[in-house]
Amino acid sequence: MASNASSRASLRSERQIPTGRVGNGSASARTKSVPPKRSATASSLRSPVDPDNADPGRVRVAVRLRPRNADDFPHDSDFTSCVELQPEFKRLKLRKNNWSSESYRFDEVFTERSSQLRVYEAVAKPVVESVLAGYNGTVMAYGQTGTGKTYTVGRLGKDDPSERGIMVRALEDILASTSAVSDIVEVSYLQTGEVSLPGAAVVELRDLDHFLELLQTGEANRHASNTKLNTESSRSHAILAVHIQRSLKGKEEKDSSSLANSSDNFSSHRVPLLLKSKLLIVDLAGSERINKSGSEGHMLEEAKFINLSLTSLGKCINALAENSPHIPTRDSKLTRLLRDSFGGSARTSLIITIGPSAKYYSETSSTIMFGQRAMKIVNTVKLKEEVDYESLYRKVENQVDSLTSELERQQKLRDADKVQMQKKLKEYEASFAEFEETFSMKSENLEKENNRLELEIRRLVEDLNNEKHQNDLMSKEIVHLKMSLNQSKEQQLENSMSQNILADTTQMYGKKIEELLKQLEDEQSRSASLEEQLNEMCQQLSDTQNSLQTQENVVDELKKELSEIHEESTSQIQSLKVKYDELFSEKELLYEELKSMEEKVLNEARQRKSLEEEVLKLNRALCDNSVELESKGPYSMTRSASGLSGAVFMPRSVKSRETISGQKDTISKIFEEVGLSNILSMLKSEDLDVQIHAVKVVANLAAEDINQERIVEEGGLDALLLLLEASENTTIHRVTAGAIANLAMNGSNQGLIMNKGGARLLANIASKTNDPQTLRMVAGAIANLCGNEKLHVTLKKDGGIKALLGMIRGGHSDVIAQIARGIANFAKCESRSISQGFRKGRSLLIEDGALNWMVANSTTFSASTSRHIELAFCHLAQNEDNAGDIISSGGIKELVRISQVSSREDIRNLAKKALNSNPVLLAAAR
Ligand code: ADP
Ligand code: MG
User: Which of 46, 239, 376, 530 has an alpha carbon within 20 to 30 A of 479's alpha carbon?
Assistant: First the structure.
């Protein structure tokens, strides 16, 4: 079993891969978180809360009545159907006979006109919705063969979709509400009742057509055997199991590929969950008893086997309804399969199906009692979810992968940064060295130039001084010449000759002076230009000194910048190192987490295994226990037998129906606890109260045919007759008469009642009391005895007929209805016995004076009483020995009236036949 489960799990995980992957790309992850619906017809589902009842775990029970069909009509001799529905009150009335009926409440009551859609929505849809929400659910049909279980549950409706049954509609809803991508829907169709389980294979569903195909194959395989009750119905149980697995993972996932806060992302992820739920839809085999269904031979063996599993289902339902400590779930394959459905954790709806025919009263009654008991069962509904460790493991693994690759990528980036920085640093250093070199060269040149200029200036200054000195010399010579000129002028006077010479010399000296003056002038301008040049040089020198200063400043700034860059890159490298350490430790942490997760998964698996072993052990122990309990034998059999067939008879009273059903429970409990023989012995108690309660219990038990035989066998009839004779108490008279009336429904008891003087005792009570309820019971009892022609003579001799007619005196319609039924019963059986030649002569009824009352009252009372009187006329008229009385009493007029205006055609025909077959009557009629 365990290996099977694990192989299924691995299969599932393979299929899950396309959605399970995370981190393949944020876009695809996001689109996949909203899985596509399988079909566009998905309906918006209602909330599965039931306003009608606060307890959601209680088993819901609905009843559905099948429309009448051709088989029902021939059996419908009692004029009316045995059930009456009151859907507006969710009630069903079950009529046992003319004087006793019971009313039952259900969660839903469907009439014969209710549609398949309404039945699905009220019974199955809430269960389907809760299965989709992760709970287990069961929908089951129970009832006699031919009442419509398969119609309700398994109808395919291929030609007319409105005819579709619960299975098809449920799958339609499930497929519309699940995703073809992330969810799994599997079905298996099993049957019990055969040795093997054909078709039990689990199949994953594609779509509704696929399901219809599977269901059709399953139906074809279903072992169907024709029974007397219904040629179409099957004798085996059919169970459709739908397994749904829904994944909640897609909805919580975020985009895990964004890197900025991947660790935050990780912690915000919820654990992925799987909802695993199961829906069972069960079409049970017919619940009728084997002898009625007419199975034989091999069929009988199989029917018994199926009946056994139904019996054990009934036992389990009884035990659960009564809160019994032991539930015999392991008694059959069926109850083991339905363990979770009743008393387990599933939400369960039961639909019980019944037919309208009174012929199957006792099957219908036991179906209703089954439904009533199932309504008492309360399940504990539980959500079926588990952690999806496979995909959780995959997710964590993926996250570790992506973090590791991220870490590596960052490391590479940091390395590249570092290389770049180092390269830049080197470049800076080289350019700095180069700059330093050119700078020193430049300053050297400038210094040289400076020196040169200084030298030149000095030389120029020297020149200038020389020139000045020469100028001074020349000025002195000029002064000297002027002086000598003056001397010569004086001499001129003295010497004319010397005048000429002087003039010449003067001229020459004049020229010379002019030349010298010019030379001086030149020298002066040259000195000015040299001075200018010197000034320029000085200016240039100071400029050079300035530029040298600014270049020194630039060098300082560059040095500063370089050191800043250096500092920055060192701090960057430092912070990258810190970040690297952080990421590394984070990686370590994630590895640890992964490891602990793996351990957890392992632990979980170990725990599951040990739990499975414990469950096995407990199951074994439970098995031993149940064997022990079973061996205690007859007690438990008695319990379940009484539980299945509820008492039906209760005298009419003003008490509410609920009190009555409470009393019925009490009665079946008393019956179980005390035992029949003890109850019967209480009829002889000295204590009147005890006697009254005991006789009520016996009267209730006597309403059920399976109890009647046992009551008579254990001396109950004798005790009741004794009580009728000896007691003076009216309650005892009334209830005892009711009990005898119930026993008198059974043919073999009628003879015993007569032989033990019952008719005389009933007649005695009839003459003594005027209590209408007592009279109704006595009249009912005698009316039942009238239906046995072998007892007619004794009945008359013991005063039974006279007593019956005597009870007319009170005029109570209920009593008169029973009297009319008795007269009709008597007349019908008498005419049959005369026509078969067992008896001759005038009717015993006429001898005891019934005819005059019939003539006077044939139209006085209710329709059903009138019809009984009309029937009695028709039967009496068939005996030619009665013709004289009929004519003389005026009954002939009634007969003619009945043949013409009776509301029922068959009675009109019966009257006509009686008139036409007797010439004396025919003549009198004209
Ligand atoms: P079961 O499965 O209980 O033996 P079936 O579902 O075979 O009974 O019903 C017996 C017959 O009655 C079938 O022919 C079915 O079509 C018919 N039938 C049952 N219920 C209904 C219904 N509610 N309306 C019409 N026909 C019905
Ligand atoms: Mg069927």
Answer: 530
Residue 785 has pLDDT above 90, yes or no: yes
Mutate to test the pocket of ligand 1, among 66, 118, 282 (most ligand atoms within 8 A of CB): 66
Q: How far is the CA of 425 from the centre of ligand 2 (A)?
A: 94
Q: 132 and 178 in contact (C-beta within 8 Å)?
A: yes
Q: Distance between CA atoms of 469 and 472, rounded to whole angstroms?
A: 5
Nearest residue to 639 (alpha-carbon basis) of 661, 671, 613, 609: 671
Output the six-digit token pair for 261: 């806060």
Closest alpha carbon to 83 in 345, 332, 353:
353
Choosing from 68, 118, 151 the residue with most ligand 1 atoms within 8 A of its CB, the one to mutate for a pocket test is: 151
Selection from 554, 577, 563, 553 nearest residue 425 by Cα: 563
Measured from CB, residues less than 6 Å from any atom of ligand 1 are 66-67, 143, 145-151, 230, 232-233, 286, 353
Of residues 695, 692, 610, 618, the one with CA closest to residue 649: 695
First to last CA, the chain: 90
Predicted confidence at residue 259, as pLDDT, reads 40
| Closest by Cα among 461, 460, 451 to 544 | 451
Question: What integer pLDDT is reported at residue 169 of this predicted model?
Answer: 97
Contact 836, 800 (CB under 8 A): no
- Ligand nearest to the Cα of 237, by number: 2
Cα gap 466→474, rounded to integer Å? 12
Looking at the DSSP assignment, which residues form a beta bridge with residue 350? 61, 140
DSSP-derived secondary structure letter, 68: P
Atom of ligand 1 nearest to the CA of 229: 4
Q: Which ligand has the shortest distance to the CA of 145?
A: 1
Ligand 1 nearest-atom number relative to CA 64:
23
Could you tell me whether strands 60-65 and 108-110 are parallel, antiparallel, or unpaired per DSSP bridges?
A: parallel
- Helix segments in 771-904, DSSP class H: 772-786, 792-797, 800-806, 813-835, 844-847, 850-857, 863-877, 883-888, 891-901
pLDDT score recorded for residue 517:
85
Ligand 2 center to 190 CA (angstroms): 15
Q: 671-685, 856-870, 879-893: which range is least confident on average?
A: 671-685
d(CA 744, CA 785): 6
- pLDDT of 193 > 70? The answer is no
Q: How far, in Å, from the CA of 291 to the mean position of ligand 1?
A: 22
Distance from the Cα of residue 552 to its chain's centroid: 89
Q: What is the token pair recorded at 498?
A: 């010397």
Q: Give distance in angstroms: CA of 897 to centre of ligand 2.
A: 48
Helix (H, G, I), strand (E, B) or coil at 97: strand
The rounded percent of the chain whose pLDDT value lies above 90 is 38
The residue nearest atom 9 of ligand 1, judged by CA position, is: 148
**Residue type at 264?**
D
Helical residues (DSSP H) of 714-757, grouped into ranges: 716-726, 730-743, 747-755
Q: What is the Å distance from ligand 2's center to 145 Cα?
A: 6
Reported for 73-81, long-range contacts at CB under 8 A and 24+ positions apart, including other chains, are 75/357, 75/358, 75/359, 76/357, 76/358, 78/358, 79/864, 79/867, 80/358, 81/356, 81/357, 81/358
Ligand 1 atom at minimal distance to the Cα of residue 144: 3
In the prediction, which pLDDT does 327 show? 93
State which ligand 1 atom lies nearest to the alpha carbon of 112. Answer: 23
Residue 812: CB atoms within 10 A of its CB come to 19
Q: Are 146 and 354 in contact (CB under 8 A)?
A: no
Distance 281 CA to ligand 2 centre (A): 13
**Confidence tier at 304 by pLDDT (50, 70, 90):** low
Looking at the chain, the whole-number percentage of residues with pLDDT higher than 70 is 79
Q: Are 292 and 144 in contact (CB under 8 A)?
A: no
- State both tokens at 472: 């001074």
CA–centroid distance, 62 to ligand 1, in Å, is 16
Which of residues 520 and 54 earns the better pLDDT score?
A: 520
